[in-house]
Amino acid sequence: MQKDSLGSPFEWKARLENYFAEHGPSFLSALVILAFGIFIARWLGKTARRWLGRPELQLEPPIQMLGTRLARLLVFIFSLLIAADTAGIHVTALLTGLGVIGVGVGLAMQSVLGNLIAGLNLIFTRPFRVGEYVELLGVQGRVLSIELFSTTLLNNDRSEIIIPNHKIVGEILRNYGQIRQLTMNVGVDYGADLNAVLATVRGVLDGNPRVLKEPAAGVGINLLADSSVNVTISPWTTVADYGTAQTEIYLAVVEAFRTKDINIPLPQREVRLIEKK
Questions:
Q1: Where on the phi/psi map is residue 171: left (φ > 0), alpha (ψ -120 to 50), or beta?
Q2: From the CB of residue 41, how many other CB atoms can be counted at a distance below 10 Å?
Q3: What is the pLDDT of residues 48-76, one digit of tens each?
Q4: I want to staple 83 with a disulfide (CB 3.0 to 4.6 A). Which of 34, 147, 209, 256 is the partner?
């Protein structure tokens, strides 16, 4: 009778029958231990999330998520090792095999691990936080989330910009925080009462609820142009009100100037025709 080759279905069937004949009760005990470990991991994860989410700790959401996942993972691995030992599997050989696999996976996922390390760096060093407005790598936007592998920004056009974390660490970063300063300009006639012009602009800013009282807005003359005196307007607003406030202020300034007969001149050029004799 021909002997079955190693690894054939008949060979594996025989091995499984022998295993369950010798370790059947131990295998059932291992399943119970594993199920109990999963239950404990879930319970500990919920407990860790509640504890890490306490206001007095002031931990960022990514740190809370990382702590919760680590607690679950450690309990699951511990219960898995106990279950494997109970089921008759040599844990030492299993750990050695997992170590070899881990090295291979680590080499194949260098970029992923780089993002993970960079994400942990961002979470613990806190160069910016969720809700702040930042500019980096030629893009800018409000920070929506800081995950372990990527950071998501919300651009002014409502599009989301997802940046791998390893590209952020070590780059030049401009963090506007929760507020931004507008830089606006308007020109008036040289014959206008400049004190009245500046008072009118300040009145417009005081009447706009989107303009912050602190820091104080900057209003002054910044340029004597060819046909106008240019006034700069630099109020502060929240990141969310940045675009809307600019539109409202420009509209209010134009209407206020019209009411007080302050003229916004058009560019003018004087052309002289010289007749040759």
A1: beta
A2: 19
A3: 888 877 777 666 676 677 778 778 888 88
A4: 34
Burial (0-12, 13-18, 19+ Cβ within 10 Å), 167: middle
What's the CATH number of domain 128-177, 3.40.50.970, 2.30.30.30, 3.90.180.10, 2.30.30.60? Answer: 2.30.30.60
pLDDT of residue 95: 63
- The token pair at 157 is 């056009």
What pTM did the predictor assign?
0.60
- What CATH number has the domain spanning 9-108? 1.10.287.1260
Q: Which residues of the chain form CATH 3.30.70.100?
A: 179-259
Instruction: Give the β-pairing of 236-238 and 179-181.
Output: antiparallel
pLDDT of residue 5: 47
Tokens coding 13: 């069937």
What burial letters (b/e) apply to 86-113, b meaning 16+ CB within 10 Å?
A: bbebeeeeeeeeeeeeeeeeeeeeeeee
Q: In this structure, what token pair is assigned to residue 212?
A: 């912050």
Written as one letter, the residue type at 48 is A
| Cis amide linkage into residue 215, ω under 30° from 0 | yes
- Which string of DSSP letters, residue by residue, matches 147-184? -SSEEEEE-TTS-EEEEEGGGTTTS-EEEEETEEE--E
CA torsion angle 94 95 97 103 (round to 10):
160
